[in-house]
Amino acid sequence: MEPKTIRFIRRGELVSLGNVPPDRTLLEVLREDLSCTGTKEGCGEGDCGACTVVLGEMEGDSLRYRAINSCIRLAHSIDGMALWTVEDLAADDGTLHPAQEAMVQCHGSQCGFCTPGFVMSLFGMYQNHVCRGERITRELAQEELSGNLCRCTGYRPILDAAQQMSGLPPVQVDEATLLAQLKRLGASGPSSASSYLLPKTLPALLAARAAHPDAQIVAGCTDVGLWVTKMQMRFGKVLDVTGVRELKQVEQYDHHIAIGASATLTDAFDALVGERPQLKTFANRFAGLPVRNSGTLGGNVANGSPIGDSMPLLIALNAHVVLMSTRGHREMPLEDFYTGYRKNVLAADEVLAWVKVPRPASGEFLRAYKISKRYDDDISAVCLVVNMTLDKGNVARISIGAGGVAATPVRAVQAETFLLGKPWTPEAAREAGKLLRAQFQPISDMRASAAYRSEVLGNLMQRFWLESQGLAQINLENFKLAEAA
């Protein structure tokens, strides 16, 4: 198979690139092939935001803008989309875009290395909020800039810039022309005889998986991208599920929602938060926005990292996964999907297609705890999610998911069994904490020691008890970032 041609729209023109290997990153193509050196390489792992660019993708008859990390995004994955880099924002006469001008006026840049990434995240905010007549609050600015790191400014002037954009002369993208161009790209369709397979329908995906069981599956590439950039792994054939229309959907049913494996983490968490608003802070802390805009819930689940945050949550919500192949489909509880460290029950011709999440139960009390060294944009040392329903003071339903304490994401069956049917008391919470510590034997690594993880695991059950009694000041849910004067 030959590398297929990548086609995308940039500056209103069609860009067509041939002979791009399937495992080449978008950042490599931008800097080395297109000489777009404004986009910087910082960490190479989607952590710092210096490489941020913005993608535009058709959703129905409208355009969706997403700021993403180009360092871990495979170049072929943007086929059929629009792309903006920091070089594309200023007008032909040199007039700066509001995202750039606001940074200048607010003195939001010092050494300048991170500035292009911040500008592109600001551009994404401008398109998604200012152009829609929405006000950018301090809280929103901090939330959507969480994937960008700066060592110089202390962030205050950058947050100022985010809020100042709307007061500058407006700049509009010609969306009607761009949508027409993207429709023509979509109508031409990609080649199926290539080393980068990007099927657009579910039957095409299943057929491709059956025909190419040796292909590396990617679904956003926020993990596989690290294998390329950090582990120097190479893939001669890639099967990308993110183009499958059916699997981009989040479907609502009477008793559950079904999240397609191609739905981004942003869209998946929006659906989960829509059902359970108390998950908002946990969703925002999953990763920075550029990672959530690229990564998918299906990819996070299939990758099965023991420190992935979505799996403890889904286990506590009693989620099921649906696996599909040309032979049919099968369904199972999420915790039964894993067989060992980053190992699962998927057959060579199967893909994970859907994650089914039950609707909230009446009286459900749910808390999701993420313990990490850095509050934003960091990986968990310990993750614990507890979902409980009481009936006359007794535990009628209880489900607990844990991460960072075993080789796989796990259900805390010992604590669940102990609590079920018992009165919900401080003593019951303490005993459940002891059972959490007893069930798991975590390891020591760069994020935390085994002793710390074990201690925190039990302490979080005590925190759950306090919050179930109405104590609010022990968490950050009630903290609101003050508006600038």
DSSP helix count? Answer: 16
The CATH superfamily of the largest domain turns out to be: Beta-grasp domain
The fraction of residues assigned to DSSP E strands is: 15-25%
Which class best fits the helix and strand makeup?
alpha+beta
CATH architecture of the largest domain: Roll
Order of the strands making up the biggest sheet: 9-10-15-11-12
Query: How would a crystallographer describe the biggest sheet?
Result: 5 strands, antiparallel
Backbone shape: globular
CATH topology of the largest domain: Ubiquitin-like (UB roll)
Fraction of residues in helix? 25-40%
Q: Which CATH first-tier class of the largest domain would you pick?
A: Alpha Beta
> Between the first and last Cα atoms, what is the distance in angstroms?
60 Å
Q: Care to describe what's here?
A:
It is a single chain. It is built from 16 helices and 19 strands. The mean pLDDT is 93. Helix 2 packs across helix 5, helix 14 packs antiparallel against helix 15 (426-439) and helix 15 (426-439) runs antiparallel to helix 16. It has helices spanning 26-33, 98-105, 115-128, 138-144, 156-164, 175-188, 202-211, 224-229, 265-275, 280-284, 289-294, 297-303, 310-316, 413-419, 426-439, 450-468; strands at residues 6-10, 13-17, 52-59, 62-69, 82-84, 196-197, 216-218, 238-240, 250-252, 256-260, 320-325, 328-333, 338-340, 343-344, 351-358, 364-371, 382-391, 394-403, 410-411. By secondary structure, it is α+β, with helices and mostly antiparallel strands.
